[in-house]
Design the sequence.
């Protein structure tokens, strides 16, 4: 019975998808065309370029965490939802921010081990204390 419950939990966790372990692949924003206004060389770390784009019917400027583009080059950027004002931070549309796909198998493995440990605990509690045989 316990083994069946463990298998059911593992099956449901696997098909619940990446959202169960906090992994999301959804883009958080809107993809727009932008033009590089102030390029940055890739000589050092932390290069930031200035781009201009139209968002919500208004022209806006933002900072792009990237380098190596030419002045006037058109690129696709993702603008965060609810962005307003002059200091908008955008990122390249083809860049993936964040999640490592190794988290899902690791989370599932930890779930399997915890189910196994819980099942062993229930087995030991139901079995009761062992009495030593006297000779």
Sequence:
């Amino acid at each position: 019975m316990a083994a069946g419950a463990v298998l059911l939990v593992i099956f449901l966790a696997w098909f619940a998808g990446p959202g169960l372990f906090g992994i999301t692949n959804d883009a958080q924003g809107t993809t727009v065309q932008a033009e590089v206004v102030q390029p940055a060389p890739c000589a050092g770390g932390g290069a930031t370029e200035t781009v201009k784009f139209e968002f919500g019917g208004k022209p806006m400027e933002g900072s792009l965490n990237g380098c190596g583009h030419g002045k006037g080059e058109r690129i696709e950027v993702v603008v965060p939802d609810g962005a307003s004002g002059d200091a908008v931070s955008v990122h390249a549309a083809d860049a993936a921010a964040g999640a490592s796909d190794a988290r899902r198998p690791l989370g599932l493995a930890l779930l399997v081990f915890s189910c196994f440990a819980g099942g062993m605990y229930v087995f030991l509690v139901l079995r009761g204390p062992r009495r030593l045989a006297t000779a």
Q: What stands out?
A: The beta strands are 30-38, 49-55, 58-64, 74-79, 88-92. The two ends are 36 Å apart (CA to CA). The chain is about 30% helix and 25% strand. The chain has a mean pLDDT of 80.
